[in-house]
């Protein structure tokens, strides 16, 4: 998961003020990186992602406005707040007219500083914007991740997306591309574990005619296809070590040499990569190069598993059902309450990909406009990547039972305990075990289903 603390770059040529403000801002919950001049700040911005920049206006060399101008050109959407001991109304007006987010006068007022930074960090990244319209979520974990992904998209840095299989790493990569200045160019993806080494090399870098048996014509390769845009290297952890060396050289030199050619060609490509493997362990056992890891992992975004975002399961299930029904021209409209509850409480080791497979199977087999619990359970049991343990199955049934008995009694715990044949104390312990509350079930059926 992306770290939820906002990242702030603090720029001031006064060392004592830097230390004082760093302590104050860290106490307010920010991750603070400091720079003593604008030139250093720009170097840091080229390597790291931030949510807001707080800078002095008057500094030797590049001043605060010059720093802002560079940030506006290179990192669109990154808010900048300026501070000055020489503040005046004309300066503040001029700064805000040019796009500076805010202007503060020293000595800083704590309340004003807090308010303007909060506004800057939470300035609108539209929740359902076009750049992320394929990602269906209302999870706070995903909201934090997507906000960071949007910020990172504006910087032309390499991003490593990590997470378990089926969490949607390619969808996130596409969203980053669509939010970036490269959005009008190609997004090209390849699975690095799907091809043998010699074919993967040819696919990435291209080949000249006659470079090997079967090379009857020249092939441009994916780097050239993605020129000006984004190349997504999925399952980068499965790339053979020998090819890792050639990839590193291409990224360092910003040029490629097709297989069988003696000429190198310049490239302008942003590389996003993804893996479900533990690359730290892969580096330790020698199957992944450390220098390539640090070249690819300028920013790391970690996708949570579906079990970490349970509030998304009903939303995703309904979304996939609608798409599948339309694609197959089947008149199926919804899940029965207990069917949706079964989906919501499953473990989903295969994550979103497994959820999609289960729902596709349900749509294919249903004879009714409403998909029932039995069909969902059948699809779950036949899905190769999922089989609950006896304990998991028992817990799943127990939670479903509690939800249903609370619905029947409209949240009346005394009556629900009587129907369940338990005393109130035991019943409350069961609710606590499954992180349920009577009021929640009664007032928010849709989210619990």
From TrEMBL:
- Classification via PROSITE patterns: RESPONSE_REGULATORY (PS50110), SIGMA54_INTERACT_2 (PS00676), SIGMA54_INTERACT_3 (PS00688), SIGMA54_INTERACT_4 (PS50045)
Q: Which SMART domains match?
A: AAA, REC
One Gene Ontology term of the biological-process aspect is:
regulation of DNA-templated transcription
Q: Does the keyword Transcription apply?
A: yes
Question: Is the keyword Transcription regulation in the record?
Answer: yes
On the tree of life, the source organism's domain of life is Bacteria
Q: What is this protein called?
A: Response regulator GlrR
Q: State the organism named in the record.
A: Arsukibacterium ikkense
